[in-house]
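Write out the 3D structure for:
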Amino acid sequence: MSLSAIVKPRTISKLIFAIEQSEGVGARVRRSIGTARLRNFSPFLMLDHFSVSGKAGFPDHGHSGQETITYMLHGQVDHEDFTGSAGTIDEGDLQFMTAGRGIMHAEMPRPQKDGSAVTGLQLWVDLPERLKGCEPRYRDLHKEEIPIVKPSDEVEIKVISGESYGVKSVQDLAYTPVWMIDATIKPGGFMTQPLPEDWNAFAYVLDGDLLCGTTVVKQYNNIVFDRNGDGVEISVPENWEKNAHVVIIAGQVLDQKVVQYGPFVAVSEEKIYETVMNFQNAANGFERARNWESKIAKRIR
C-alpha cells in the first residue's frame, strides 16, 4: 500500500460516546473501548481518557498477558512496580509497558500546583499468545523523540508510532504492532491518514469537533472504522470556530481468543484461572508481589 495517498477512505462502523465514570481511587475516566458497546476490538482491550485531581490515582494492582500505552496530555504520572522500576511520565511523553507473565505496579498522578486535573490516555493492547509469558519490560518515549509533520498551515501531526505524510516514528515500541497519530486541525484544515491493510483502527476526539468524511463527530466520541479502505480522511470546516484534537490509532489484528478478568488477559478460561491463582498465591511470575507495597500509593492514605 502506498502511503502517499488514500485510494478508498474507510467508512465509519460506529460512533461511541465515552461516558465519564469512576475508576481507581478518586479518578475519573471516559472509556470507549472495553465496554458493552465495543469489547475486544483486536488487538485493543480498553481505551481510557483519564482525569485525576488532588490525592487520587491508581494504587497497587496487577497485570498480565497484555501491554499498556500511557500518553500524558497534561501533568505528570509517577509509576513504580515490584521489579524496582520507578519513574515519571511528563506531559507529552508516553510509556509502553509490557506486563507479560505478570507485574504489579502503581500509577499515581502528581497533584498540580494550579489545581488542574492530570489528564491522559491509557490504551490496553493484547499480546500474541506466544509472548504472554515474556518478562515484563518498559519503554518510555519522550516528547522530544516524537517527530512532527505539518502537511499544511492548518494541520500539525505528531507521529508517535507508525508513519504519516512520509515521516516515520521511532520503531519497535511495543510487541504488538500499533500505530498512533496525534493530530491538531485548525478550521480549514484537512488531513488524510493511510493505515496498514486489514488492521483495526479508530479515532478518538480529545477536543473540538471534526468532520470524518461527511459525518460530524463531537468531542469525546470514538470513531470506530470498518476495515474496507486504505485509510481515513478528517477535516475541520473553515467556518468552524475551534481547533480539533484527535488521536488516530490502528493495530494488527490477533487471531486468538480473548479471555479477560480485569487486568489479566489470556486465551482460555483455564489460563485465566491459572493467572488469577498465581496472583493470589504470589507464584509463577508474581513471586515479587508477596507483601509488596509501592511508596507512591501511600500519598492517598
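The chain has a mean pLDDT of 94.
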